Amino acid sequence: MNHMQSASPHTPVLLLNPEGRSSVVVVCEHASRFIPPAFDDLGLDDVARQSHIAWDPGALDVARGLAMRIDAKLVATSVSRLIYDCNRPPSATAAMPARSEAFDVPGNATLTAAQRQDRTDNYYEPFRGSLAATVAATPNPVIVTVHSFTPVYHGKPRSVEIGILHDTDARLAEAMAQVAPLHTEAKVEINVPYGPQDGVTHTLREHAIEAGHLNVMLEIRNDLIETARQQDAMAECLASWLTAALGVLNVQGGAQC
What we know:
single chain; alpha/beta; 6 helices; 11 strands; globular; disordered N terminus
């Protein structure tokens, strides 16, 4: 399975299906755990580099499967969120965290303003620009970001299985919650395990809310998407679920025949 571990540090953005006809733009901000060699693994051991602090396991494969099924464009990062978390603005400490959950990140501990600006220029700005251009080129765009979360966080189990997150625009999230029982048996909650108070809705704010575009952030518990079969099933579920929710809103944004 390709998790973009061979990605070049000079290609921080992955754009798939750029000619997609759906009005949905799928986004995956935490798609890769790749750390460019120049960063010396940020001082982390292999366990930390492969854990959820470095990326969202399974999210890219689900996002890719969703995009394929509804003929949507997909914009994703190709470097670890520990280098730069593209779902955070440059002003946020969490954009380049010195600590993530139980792990210290030595390579981020003493960043200078110039080093932070360099990462912003090399990783965040290309992603932001590519996503902005993709949204601008899509008629009546609908922004759907795909993430995964760990089943246990700071030692506490999480019972929610799929989170439907929104900021000030709840239209699509509420429509998805409305039709959820018809598409999944998973435990679904709104703004769980995170919400806008946790600073996780930057992409929605930056690329959707101000312009009035429909949007939603999907969080999937990562033990549900560990295998290729699980990822494929989740992508199939999300495609029909999202299409139905857009239908509730009288928007033709789902699968294109």
